[in-house]
């Protein structure tokens, strides 16, 4: 997340939601995680650029390259030999990070700007094996953080598009009439500033349902084949040209094996 400065009593213009913009992060094969910034129906801003990475997230995965690449798996080498061979070739081996060790917003450096806006979206999608989707749900949140009460007398101007399946839900202390008529986020009591301090205050949430497969930022195909006592698996991904993907992680569930799979070819990093 990036920050923008606002003057007391001023208006900030934020444009969105949009059907397709250009930033995603933290995608996985199960569809969990949808990065902050402008995305499927997200909110972008004219203050500065609120895009790309949620604050406090470590960049632990390789940047996703162009589309049409993949990886092959087999079963030949043992775990230690496999890792040592990758290290010998100059590969960077990333250790598994326990959930408790992942950086959180509370552990991130405190903001120095008087006003900080955080825009986050999450995508939950279920893709059928033979194509098509059975569930496509986008949920987003716009949160505000104000350091001092004197900077809390502000409004945020939202620009949205009329799109099917889009719905908004504002905080109880937001002036709903003002938001519904002019799409301006302001306090219900104009004489009271937004809450100040180190905690963020969610101002508005949105949800989009019923989108089709063409809106997916990333598609993954898996092609296994058995030869004797070995199994060869080709996993290919194709990224949409409409998105600039960062920190993409594809998790592949494997059965319990005595030997680690042998990666014959990969575009990116494997751990």
TrEMBL record:
SUPFAM superfamilies: Second domain of Mu2 adaptin subunit (ap50) of ap2 adaptor (SSF49447)
Every MHD domain range: 112-271
Alphabetical list of PROSITE patterns matching this protein: MHD
A Gene Ontology cellular-component term: Golgi membrane
Membrane topology listed for this record: Peripheral membrane protein
Gene3D superfamilies in the record: Mu homology domain, subdomain B
Record-linked Pfam families: Adap_comp_sub (PF00928)
Gene Ontology terms describing biological process: protein transport; retrograde vesicle-mediated transport, Golgi to endoplasmic reticulum
Location of the region described as Disordered in the Swiss-Prot/TrEMBL record: 35-73
Subunit structure: Oligomeric complex that consists of at least the alpha, beta, beta', gamma, delta, epsilon and zeta subunits.
Stored PANTHER family: COATOMER SUBUNIT DELTA (PTHR10121:SF0)
Protein's name in the database: Coatomer subunit delta
Organism classification: Eukaryota, Viridiplantae, Streptophyta, Embryophyta, Tracheophyta
């Amino acid at each position: 997340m990036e920050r923008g400065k606002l003057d007391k009593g001023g208006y900030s213009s934020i444009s969105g939601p949009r059907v397709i913009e250009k930033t995603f992060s933290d995608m996985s094969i199960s569809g969990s995680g949808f990065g902050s910034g402008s995305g499927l129906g997200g909110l972008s801003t004219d203050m500065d650029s609120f895009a790309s990475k949620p604050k406090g997230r470590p960049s632990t995965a390789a940047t996703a390259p162009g589309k049409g690449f993949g990886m092959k798996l087999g079963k030949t080498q043992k775990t230690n030999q496999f890792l040592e061979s990758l290290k010998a070739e100059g590969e960077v081996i990333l250790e598994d990070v326990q959930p408790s060790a992942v950086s959180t917003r509370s552990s991130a450096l405190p903001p120095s700007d008087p006003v900080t806006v955080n825009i986050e979206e999450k995508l939950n999608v279920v893709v059928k094996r033979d194509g098509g989707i059975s569930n496509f749900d986008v949920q987003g949140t716009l949160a505000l953080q104000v350091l001092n009460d004197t900077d809390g007398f502000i409004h945020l101007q939202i620009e949205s598009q009329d799109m099917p399946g889009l719905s908004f839900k504002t905080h109880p202390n937001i002036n709903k009439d003002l938001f519904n008529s002019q799409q301006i986020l302001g306090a219900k009591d104009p004489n009271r500033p937004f809450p100040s301090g180190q905690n963020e205050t969610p101002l508005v949430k949105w949800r989009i349902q019923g989108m089709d497969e063409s809106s997916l930022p990333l598609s993954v195909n898996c092609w296994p084949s058995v030869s004797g006592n070995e199994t060869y698996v080709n996993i290919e991904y194709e990224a949409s040209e409409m998105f600039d993907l960062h920190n993409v992680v594809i998790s592949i569930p494997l059965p319990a094996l005595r030997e680690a799979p042998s990666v014959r070819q990969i575009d990116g990093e494997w751990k």
